[in-house]
């Protein structure tokens, strides 16, 4: 692999981690009740088209975001995304569920994705390849610590104050994120000098086979997230579980994101690389998701256990995917980072289309079978990945060369 141009900045990474924690909490406030809001506002059972449109727009923007960053810089792209997301929250706060607030929610999804991608690009400016697993693992762990608190808070607020309470909490935390970021990140405005078209970007990426293989693994993970986030709360509600029970289940479900990601990042950097663990994690995620297809109980312990298992696999894939990818690019590869993060948009678009078709003929339970099949399919490119060398392997090579 070529030498990458990056510099680790401990103070900036601490600030970014704090911002990521707040963003994780704010995201989780709405993440697991968003589908219920769409359902209430539209009066429809099939809310897939709203996600389809949102992520189709996101996909188009992601393919062209490097052009925007080339003109305005990384931190400005982040701050503008956050500012306009706050405006969409204000609209949802002040209007009853309607077509207007559905559009505002869709803008919230689009801008939230741009916000995360912009922060991703900023992180790469202050990290190094040798520490990629640790840096990404630590950042994900801190972000997910915030994410862990979200479902419990949102379901409790929703139970007592309806969606208006949820939007108020969301407004407060996003405003705090904006103020902290404006003070601490506004000068991180490195500009990207490339000027590739979307077609040129695709040609550039196609030449890098391992990036494409990692992209499909990322697609499978995001496909899993897309359908699980949308249909798990709806399915549990249909089974007869209360929001309080669901809040407990989801809190337990998210614990792996706190405990496994940083240690996994350290192991990937120091001892083993990423490939074998990616394969192992995909198997865990697929098998535990398939198990949901056979469950119709409302037992809180059972659901907590099964969903906990699905997130062990997902949490491991999340950090391993990022560790693998960011070791193969550097801070100047803004266009490739943009492309890699389109996996989420592509996955959500595919998930929305699949869910619309599946629900025409089958019950919501069939969704979980489809998710398992897609996750299993990611084993094929995962097995073909060229593994990154860990620190132990590089030390052995240096000793042998000496």
Notes on the structure:
The protein is mostly helical and 402 residues long. It has one domain: Up-down Bundle (Growth Hormone, Chain: A). Helix content is 81%, strand content 0%. The protein has 17 helices and no strands. The chain has helices at 10-31, 34-42, 48-72, 74-94, 99-125, 132-184, 198-206, 209-239, 243-253, 256-259, 261-272, 275-292, 300-326, 334-361, 365-377, 379-384, 391-401. α4 crosses α6 (132-184) and α6 crosses α9 (243-253). It is globular and about 70 Å long.
- Determine the CATH topology: Growth Hormone, Chain: A
Would you identify the CATH architecture? Answer: Up-down Bundle
User: In CATH, what is the class?
Assistant: Mainly Alpha
The coarse silhouette is globular
Total count of strands: 0
Straight-line N-to-C gap: 21 Å
What Rg do the Cα atoms give? 20 Å
- Supply the CATH superfamily name: MFS general substrate transporter like domains
Report the order of strands and helices: HHHHHHHHHHHHHHHHH
Tally of distinct domains: 1
Q: What is the multimeric organization of the chains shown?
A: single chain
List segments where confidence is low: pLDDT < 50 over at least 5 consecutive residues. 1-6
What is the overall pLDDT average? 83
User: Can you count the helices?
Assistant: 17
- Structural class based on helices, strands and sheet pairing: mainly alpha
Strand content is under 5%
Biggest sheet architecture: none
Helix content: over 70%
